[in-house]
């Protein structure tokens, strides 16, 4: 039996199909992006990015579009399928890297590992090895990751605030000396005028960003975007209301963190606890 032909003429790629459906519905109404934004109360640039496929938006805006177009559940279903399209993850990360390079300031919270901008080569190698890399590809990725640290160097380096969970500092590398060097590097980096490092103690308890590594980037046009990363995926968040909500959660968590001076002392205590290498 011959393969079934696709006769709708619409894309079969989830992300493209979702964007295409948004454009078709709006054009069918004869609305401009500006008119749609005014009627929904959402940002026109966000709606435009959703129609171009560069941003999936949030479930709230998708539900609002479903209501506006009289398509209950249709767009939300397409959105959920598009969110599960793994082929977009690497594309989003590449875009995130481009935005990171042009950011005027950066705020980070790390719950699982030391952020890449603060990693030693040995730390990066162990993390990437556990992720399945090996051979020449591993060497290339370690070099690329450590090369990113130059972003925080020099007179024009952007301000960078990093809040690191105590759990990260209690998860050492396998080799004590390499772990010692990572802690020493954190102490070295936080001496730079553009870097602020804080530790969130475990006793602070639960908070709004629990289990999520988060980076906020303030861009030259004044817009702030967020990148949320879990163990298996990352998502670039650009919708204004969603970013503002995450920022409020970040600010609340920062109030629970140790001061920079207290955080430095905490890392120094952790350093003292690293066992010495056995003498040979």
Describe it.
The chain folds into two domains: 14-84, lambda repressor-like DNA-binding domains (434 Repressor (Amino-terminal Domain), Orthogonal Bundle), CATH 1.10.260.40; 87-114 and 156-272, Endonuclease Chain A (Endonuclease, Chain A), CATH 3.30.870.10. The protein has twelve helices and six strands. The chain has a six-stranded mixed sheet with strand order 3-2-1-4-5-6, with helices on both faces. The protein has 280 residues and is an alpha/beta fold. The model is unreliable at 1-8 (pLDDT under 50). 49% of the residues lie in helices and 12% in strands. Strand 5 (224-229) and strand 6 form a beta hairpin.
Q: What is the count of structural domains?
A: 2
Q: Which whole number gives the mean pLDDT?
A: 86
Strand order of the largest sheet: 3-2-1-4-5-6
The chain-level structural class is: alpha/beta
The counted number of beta strands is 6
Q: What is the CA–CA distance across the termini?
A: 72 Å
* Shape verdict: elongated
CATH class wording of the largest domain: Alpha Beta
CATH topology value of the largest domain? Endonuclease, Chain A
Outline the low-pLDDT stretches: 1-8
String of helices and strands: HHHHHHEHHEHHEEEEHH
Helix content: 40-55%
The largest β sheet comes out as:
6 strands, mixed
CATH superfamily of the largest domain, by name, is Endonuclease Chain A
State Rg: 22 Å
Q: Report the total helices.
A: 12
Q: What proportion strand?
A: 5-15%
What is the CATH-assigned architecture of the largest domain? 2-Layer Sandwich
Oligomerization status of the protein chains: single chain
Organism: Streptomyces achromogenes
Protein name: Transcriptional regulator with XRE-family HTH domain
Pfam families: DUF5753 (PF19054), HTH_31 (PF13560)
Domain HTH cro/C1-type: 22-75
């Amino acid at each position: 039996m011959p393969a079934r032909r696709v006769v709708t003429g619409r894309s079969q790629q989830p992300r493209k199909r979702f964007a295409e459906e948004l454009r078709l519905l709006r054009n069918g109404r004869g609305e401009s992006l500006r008119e749609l934004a005014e009627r929904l109360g959402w940002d026109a640039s966000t709606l435009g990015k959703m129609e171009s496929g560069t941003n999936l938006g949030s479930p709230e805006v998708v539900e609002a579009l479903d209501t506006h177009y009289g398509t209950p559940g249709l767009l939300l279903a397409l959105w959920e399928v598009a969110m599960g399209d793994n082929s977009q993850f690497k594309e989003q990360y590449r875009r995130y890297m481009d935005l990171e390079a042009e950011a005027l300031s950066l705020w980070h919270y790390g719950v699982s590992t030391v952020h890449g901008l603060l990693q030693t080569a040995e730390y990066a190698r162990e993390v990437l090895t556990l992720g399945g890399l090996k051979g020449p590809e591993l060497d290339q990725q370690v070099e690329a990751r450590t090369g990113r640290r130059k972003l925080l160097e020099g007179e024009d380096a952007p301000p960078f605030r990093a809040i690191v969970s105590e759990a990260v500092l209690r998860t050492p590398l396998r080799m004590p000396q390499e772990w010692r060097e990572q802690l020493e590097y954190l102490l070295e980096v936080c001496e730079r005028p553009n870097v602020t490092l804080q530790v969130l103690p475990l006793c602070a308890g639960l908070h709004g960003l629990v289990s999520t590594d988060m980076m906020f980037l303030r861009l030259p046009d004044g817009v702030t975007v967020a990148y949320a990363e879990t163990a298996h995926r990352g998502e670039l968040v650009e919708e204004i209301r969603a970013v503002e909500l995450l920022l409020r959660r970040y600010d609340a968590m920062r109030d629970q963190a140790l001061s920079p001076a207290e955080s430095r002392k905490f890392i120094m205590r952790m350093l003292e606890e690293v066992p010495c290498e056995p003498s040979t």
